[in-house]
User: Fold these one by one.
Assistant:
Number 1:
Amino acid sequence: MIKAVRCDHSSFKEVRFEAGFNVVLAERTKESNSKDSRNGLGKTTLIEIIHFCFGAGTKPDEGLRIKELEDWTFMLDLTLRGKDYTIYRNTKDYKKVKIEGDISNWPIKPDYNKNEKIFFMKTAEWSSLLGYLMFDLPVEATGEQYKPTFRSLISYFARRGVGAFHDPFKHYAQQKEFDVQVNNAYLLGLNWEYASEFQLLKDKEHTLQELKKAANQGLLAGLIGTLGDMEAERVRLEDEVSASEDQLKTFKVHPQYYSVYEEAEVLHKMIQEIKNKYAINAHILSKYEENITEEKDVSADNVKQIYEEAGIIFPEGVVKKINDTLEFHKTIVRNRKEYLKSEISRIRREIEDQKYQIENNSNKRAELLGILRTHGALEEYSRLQNRVVTLRQQLEEVKSRIRNLEAFEEGKSVLKIEKEGLLQKTHRDCQERKMQLDNARKHFNKNSENLYSEPGTLSIDIKDTGYKYKVGIKRAKSQGIGYMKVFCYDLTLIQLRAAYADMPGFLIHDSTIFDGVDERQIAKALELAASEAQSKGFQYICTLNSDVVPFNDFSEKFRNEFDRFACIKLTDSTEDGGLLGIRF
């Protein structure tokens, strides 16, 4: 039970709560005009202060950690397990809380400040301790990765922010599914550990999907990722790696590989040039030999015979000139034959020399090529080494993908068996807890029936992914009826917890929960909360704007008592009329 909210600043308006029904009223006065706002009077801030004193996380320049509230200390008077305590938390020294009260039975002992004569502890420890004091959660570290936490559980009994009222099973819009499952299971009396196991199975499924994803990525991403394809690729790469490694083992590096290569190239060019000259000489030799055989002398008798046959008789003088001419011709022919013989002899010597050069250079080049065939350059050796490394990497990649695929296939089978076993356990457990679950269903049915004359439904199903919670109210289409689902569910939770004194012992609703709700349903909801709080022994606190209080729809008795339920009235008629006593 929350007894009071206080502050060390005199402008702050202390709020004292009673057992049962309490209203924090933001009141429009006659003096205020239509431009005044009651949204800044402190209704929501009051809930923030309660969470702040319960160890809620904070951020700079947000919530209570703003410049205007720097070094403010808020106090919360409350009852925990039958004992009264006061909790202090400062907006500047926000990492710890100070505590007054009997701590002798606490499983976690606070430190003691001798100068201030007060106990204190870090907010994380305080939250853990509150989990034990309000919800009987273990304070020692447990092995469960997904488990109920005080901060999540308490947020179903003191929702804050518009997003907290959209879904009965979520206290904020981005709440993770495992947190929804585990904490609601705990509050409804289900086996929350099974909800945790369902999340662990989801984690395994995610891991398997990552394995499959890894198997289809990497160096060989273009390959079809079946296990058979991977095995075939593995064999091919193993053969290629083996062949490349053998080649690397027999590879000989010649320190002057490129010099040898260049020398072989020079010899190749020389051989080609000599062969070209050889071909030219061979052609010339052939022509010269042909010419020398065709050269013939012409006699004077032959010339005379030709002319005589033509009927021409030469005089002696002419015959002499012909003989002289023929002698001159013979001299020319003789000289030409001598020249041709000399050239033929020279060319034959050149040809022999060229043959020798071709053979000699060819032998040298063959020797160099032999060296090149049996040796390689250092760069070539390095390239071969890199090739082997690359092939090995590809082989390991394929092997890794094979392992991932094998693990994926095996994991799928194991996961399927585990999931089926968990589903069976959960179904059996729900059957064993049928009485508890029916009790929760009955509370929700009655709560919704009180508001809409027809019972709603609270259904709890077991799916492959765990518990599935759902509430239904006929005609539930408007925003207002959606908010009333949250109201009925929250009321169900505190009704179930009412058997445990001060655990937590209260339910707080911000005025947001009544936005868009028909006045008749608001009236019924408030009267139902007041009635249940009184009969079940818990505390109900709500914040309301005065102009939405449905006085005309209250029962006469409740209407007459309503003013005494107002633990504080905040007003917009003055600058200091809000909770903090200041405006900014």
Number 2:
Amino acid sequence: QLIVNQMEAAGEGELRRRFEALKRQLDDEGLFDPDLKQVIPKYPANIALVTSQTGAALRDMLTTLHHQYPVVGLRLYPAIVQGNTAPASLVKALQLVQLDDHCDVVVMGRGGGTLEDLWAFNDESVVRAIHQCRLPIITGIGHQTDLTLSDLAADQYAATPTAAAAAAAPDGEQLGQLLLAIRHRIYRCGLRSIERYAQRHDSLSARVRHPALVIKQHTQRLDTLHSRLSAAAFTHQRNLKFSLFSSAHRLETCSPLTFIEHTRIECNALNRQLRYLGFQLTQKHRNHLQSLTNQLTTLSPRETVARGYAIVRDPLTGTVVTDASQLHRGARVRAEISRGWFEATVSQFEPASTPESSTE
């Protein structure tokens, strides 16, 4: 028989009671409010790691990040993660992280253990430091079944340190697919520009009625250039695709963001070059056509008449009189001048280099 006069929680039971009490208090203060969570950057340049520098968690996080996102910069802020001095050490590490202007996100983690082993991450000072941190924080504390107050205060939490590291960095394969999609989009834009200028040239050619043969030849030349440019663009796109797969092996020494920028500049330059070529070719054809038009206009009989000359014809047959031997005294002629004509009778003529004649 056992008679109990008083019973108090001890050991893990006491820790559970303190855990629930502090959880309610901090929740009432809004430290776990989802609306206050910061957004995790998609492509961080530098990641801060807050963990023990001798634990297995650090090795797991480093392995994951080097494999998944090898171009990211890593900065270690070592801290004690277990024991009475752990809370102050964790708070101090978070303070140091915020002094580093180059870090974009913080990953805080440690391996699994008992509730007592993980108790430093339930300390009120640590939870408040996480909530007040100006940088987004991802926690990975313990195993899948472990949940600490630090996890609830963090902007995102994962089941393990390895999962937390994976959540902080983009997937390298997905990033490669994104780069390939961007290259395809740039290629399509360049091809549409070529087709647009080809259609514009065809439209200008259709408005010109003569000389038809010259226009046809230049149109065929433009089609040939268009085919060559399209083939060159396709070859260039294919080379860029091969270059992308090759660049995947050099991600440790080459920033994807810089690579994207260089590719964008290169494709913009190609687009401007293609646009300039189309403009120059169209202008050349237009100038040539204008020159031919001017030549035809200059040789036109109507232009000759406009300069003060007359075209003399036989009024009966309409035959043009080109020689004095076709005339005789008393002959009727029709003279076509600018803006009209008139008929006259030959009263006197003399076949000579300087004729003396009069008409009435």
Number 3:
Amino acid sequence: MAKLTWHGHATVQLDSDQGFVAVVDPWITQNPVHPTKQLPEKVDVILVTHDHFDHVTDAVALAEKTGAKVVAQPEVIAQLVKEGLKEEQGIGMNIGGTVEIGPLSAHMVHAFHSSQNGTPAGYIMTLDNTVVYHLGDTGLFGDLQLFGELHAIDYALIPVGGHYTMDYKLGALAAKMLKAKKVIPIHYRTFPLLLQDANQFVEEVKRVSPGTEVVVPEIGGTIQL
């Protein structure tokens, strides 16, 4: 059974039964709420949803430390190469595409946000027969319902902090549209502008999507998927 570790904000680590490790949107060393600010020792692949600082700052350093491949849109890869990423470590892809890296399948879908380079995205990933959708940074949009129909999503990682992304009310509607078995709130608690705890999201999901379970890991905490 795969494991998921929430490193705070939008940084999520997935570990397979066989020790394969994927990290999405690495921002650890400068994250004010991360308990250790230490990068993982072993990572096989890094996936970047968009290149705002709070999603990509540690990508090059983590790739250099671990030798991990980096998956992102070509424009983001090109920028990371300028910042020191080895070209052979970059895997450019785009919305609608799927990459297979070891036991991980990652399908890139669109998100509604902004990005310095390329366009914002999310990843619908399959690892150890578990489907995990990382929405990236996004507002609410109608295709979330389509994604829920096309993919049997076990876990959806939903930004709920507000201001830069959906707030907890829209996040709860996203949970309903996706029909995910379980949802995990992300992109909150980090800055004063953002939602500071998940309680309102938990209660709103109970109200609008009572069949959906909300899982709230601690920052740095790990759950079994």
Number 4:
Amino acid sequence: MTTRTGRVLITCAPPNPNGDLHLGHLSGPFFGADVLRRYLIARGASVSYVSYTDDHSCYIPRRGAEIGYPAHETALRYTRRIEQSLALAGMLPDYYEHPHREPVHNEVVRREFGKLWAAGMIEEQELPTAYCEPCGAYRYEAQLRGLCRFCESPSDGTYCEECGLPQDVEGLHEAKCTTCGTLATTRLSRRLVFPLARWAGQLSALYDERPWRRRVLDYCEKLVAAGLPDVPISRIDSYGIEVPLPGWEGHILDTWFSGIFGYMAATEAYAAALGTPELAEELWTDPDTTLVHFIGFDCSFSHAALWPALLLALGRPVLPEHVISNEFYALEGGKFSTSRGWAIWASDFLREVPADAARFHLALTNPETERTDFRRTEFDHTLHTVLGSQLDGWTGAVLAGLAAECDSTVPASRAPEPRARAAALTEKVAAALEPDVFLPRSAASAIAETVAWAAEDLRTAAPELSVVLAGHAELLATLAAVAAPLLPDWSRRVAGLFALPTIGLDELPAWPSDGVAVLAAGQRVGTGYQKIFAARSDVGG
């Protein structure tokens, strides 16, 4: 395990509250951030995990217009659904901030903007900006749809989902207004910009030092080599946080600029809720803080280039140690699409199958470094075979065998092979979940392979059954500890039956110590294990 001397602050890219979450959403930053949080807590780290909804995003009024609701009510309704889905999946952050309902958000954004403005870090420029003549309005991001200037993929008006590159100030190729469908023209408009090129040297040094995923590092290095742009940070619009400067009435701050301050606001709100307001300042000013961002690759520009530069401009010593990105998660070979109805909604799915089953399958098929796919037949195999027949069946057999053969106590003499596999599994899962690597697919695969072996080994065991059962009990208890980041409900239940020591309000089993048996000889073991991996209905066919 990497030695950490300070706290860990984990963030998850804020979702737009313009719809509920589908499995594609869950597979990415939400899942990764939750798994890492649970793993680090089990290893004894001090972890804070925060996020928020992007209430000021221009996608909100667009969605509100489509469904006939005001923007603020749209954000409120969908934020509730997002939180419900995250709760069902066991993926809620320690603190989930609501910008429209918590004044701290706007206060922090204005405060940090004011520092940058006072320090001369922000400039005013006249820039060509997309404009819709019939609508008589400037157009940005969700208000535009066209082709990326760099890869020609369909894109909205700010960042391309495919290549992640920011569109230049003149916007997309063939850009059309999403309100009326008219081809946009360009007009000069007065905008505030953050000159990113000033920080090219320090950003390059950061990229040389950080163990980020290769695609993100390649992206960042190409950005620097091509010349970092002046980044527009204001828009002429009415929905959002107004620019807090005289003479800038009718201008708002771009949420792609202010997003890092959303993380700060969420941290401050969390610290205040804990009754330790000083914690927020400590997290963002202590050089020993490990800052970890979880993002989709299309958020690379903000989290890996713009926001580190803003932190440098503010003199903040805490820069992202890890930017952990993921690729797209497809559905039966096609891209998740809410407009085409091609989606599995998390809230529906998680009411029909155990959350741990969804979590484990998302781990097995996680789009860590390449696009992967959710297929119903594969999920059914995970649920019914890997988790139902093998894990549930083996767990029940071990506990029933201990009750029948050993009076529900753990014998001192234990078969060596299960003990060796317990040690190997602990090592493999730890290696996969360290943030320098963070490959939950590898962790899940190691768990699945171990469970498959254990189920078959116990099924065929005959002589010296008590010795075999003792070895399997040690393996099962070890699995309950190391699988907890992926299978928290199952692990919590099994840890309770073995009376394993737990950590924190999550009741996570403590991570096994090297060379030390998890179970003591003669330890009493609980009975009455209830199998949990059965779908509550045949959702999705």
